[in-house]
Each structure stands twice: as structure tokens, then as C-alpha cells.
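User: Teach me something about this protein's shape.
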Amino acid sequence: MMTILRLIRRELANAFVHDARRAIFLFGAAAAYLILFGILYYPGVVKEIPTVVCDEEHSAYSRTLIRQVDDDERLGLVRVVGDIDEARAMLRGKKAYTAVVIPADFSKDILNGRSAKVLFLFNGANIITTNIASSAGNDIVNTFNARFAARQAALRTSGDEQLLKRRIEPVTTSLRVLNNPTQSYMQFFMVGLAMAAMQQGIFLAIGAAVQGDFADKKLQGTSKAALLAVKFAVYWLLSLLSFGLICVLSRLLGLPIRAPLTALFLLDGTFAFAAISLGIFGASLFQDELQFVRASIMYTVPAFIFGDYTWPFEGMGPVTQLAAKAFPMAWLSNAVRELFLSGRFAALLENLLVLTVMGVLFLSLGTWLFLRRFRKTEKA
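Assistant: First, the predicted structure itself:
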């Protein structure tokens, strides 16, 4: 019969020596995601979207608009063509993702007081570049309109162009984005991806540990309740260390951590409680480790998609919202991002409570299945 100390030593030896996969799952998965996506998202924002301009007029007005397209850092002017079919061919061939078409009667319509139409074509297969390019297009046209109106008024009245511009446009907008002022994709995506990888690492590690116990003949006479309690405590502490590694790597990669570490580790601790409990339940439910691994991989992607991270709860239907809130990840990833970027999360206590209830439920079911499997094995 093993003492508690021997059980602890056994779990640590299994995790780091005899079956080092478990340590790699716990510490390597999230670290690999952070480094990989940190390299990918290092620029932070999408800039220089390849853009072609089709100038069918070649006038002073069209050249002014082309200069504004070229000056906008969100768009990268790759070519100016004279035929719309050539511009469309560049979009189809992905030589450009945005096309600006200036019609042949562009300046004529402006000078005659008619509304001149500029066509913006986007490759909508990628909504990220489409949204950025469409926003840039609106800004370019608005700037052109303001400059033209002020210049024309100044020419007619011999007045000051800047003063007239302020009278023509008495209200201007000022953009101020809190918490993520550069709207960096690195800050938006990376934390959630790391949390998803950490969850999968927890599942794979605890699954291997539980299934390994079912096959271990040396556990005869050992208290299975004590075995499970030690296993849970060891992997819970290792999960906290894994989260600490995530925090260190995040800072090294330039992500801000504005919340107190106590709040972050409290949230991670309750999530680890729920995730390990769910892992014990799942590993005890399936007959072998391979079946559990397949199930956990099938679970991870929906858990991330429905986790209120890339798509908010408010944008889901009532039934989908209810289903999404059944995933522990839904109560972790977005909360961690808010804590990282803003330093606070208004619903933190609610999330902690829900994760605790989930953990108690899954641990109760998992303990019952775990002990039941051992009883069946010993009888056989």
C-alpha cells in the first residue's frame, strides 16, 4: 500500500520521467501556440493590402484620389490600370485584394454638381482584409470630399481654405479605442488560442494519467480515493504552473497583463478545477486512452468556437447561447483576455462560481466512474 507521499512522487515521476508526454501536453501545447501565433501576429495589424486602381479618366481629380489611396497605410498600391477587366483579373488572380475604379466621367460629374461614383471592389473571401479595406475606402472618399468642397469654396469666394473647411465640416470625429488602441490581432487572438491549447494539454495529460492507472497492476491494495485525490492535486498544481508559463511568455511577446496576478490565477485555478474534473470524467468513461484522445480533440474546436471569444454571446441565438455556456472554455477565454488587456472583468465572480459548479459536478461523476472502473477491474 502506497502512502500519500509515495503517491505524489509516483504521479510526478510518471508525468516527467516514465511518460513525459504528460508534461509536454501540460507545458508544451500552450507555449507552442503562443510562440507560433506570436510570430504570425507579431506585426499586430494588417497593413499594405494589395490594391489596384483602375483610372478610366486620367484627370487631376482622379490623380488626387490615387495619391490618397497610395498615402493610406492600410492599402498598398500595386498598379494603376486603365481597364476594369484588367483590375478584375488581378482580383481573380489574387495579385490584388482591393480594386478602386474611377469612372471616365468622374471630374465631369463633380464639376457639374452631380454625385460622382467611385467603385470599390473587394475579395470577400477574407473578411478581415475586406473590413479593413472598406473602412479605408470610406475614409479616403470622405477626405476627398472635404478637401474638394473647401477648395472650390475658397476659389469662388477668395476665402481661406482651412477656415472654409472647418465651416463646411463643423463636426469631426475622433477615434479612441480603449485597451487595444492599435486594434492588434496579436492581442485579440493569442490569449484565447493559448487557453484552448492549455485546456487540450490538461485533457491529454490527465487522460493519460487516469488510463495509466487502470492498467497499473502495482496499485493493488492502494486506496483508490487517495490515488485520485493525489492525482487531482498534482495536476491542478501543474496546471497553475503551466498558466504561469503562459503569462511569462505573453509578456516576453509583448502582450500586456494589466490585471493583478491574484485575479488571473484565481480564474485559472477554478478553470483548471473544472477542466481536470471533466478530464477525469471523460477518461473514466472511455475504455482506452485512444478513444478519450479522439473525443477530447473533437471537443476542443467546438469549445473554442462557442467560447464567446471570436464571436460574442450577444450575436448568437438563444438556443446557441445556452449550448455555448455549457463549455467551461466559455467562462475562461474571454475573461482572461479582458483581464490581460483592461485589468478588470465585471463578471469575474459569476464566472468563478459557474466554473466551480461545473467542477463539482464533473468531479462527482468522474470519481464515481473512476472508482467503479477499479472495482470492476479488481473483481475480474
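Now, about its shape. The two ends are 20 Å apart (CA to CA). The longest strand covers residues 49-55. If you'd like, I can walk through any region in more detail.
User: That's plenty for now, thanks!
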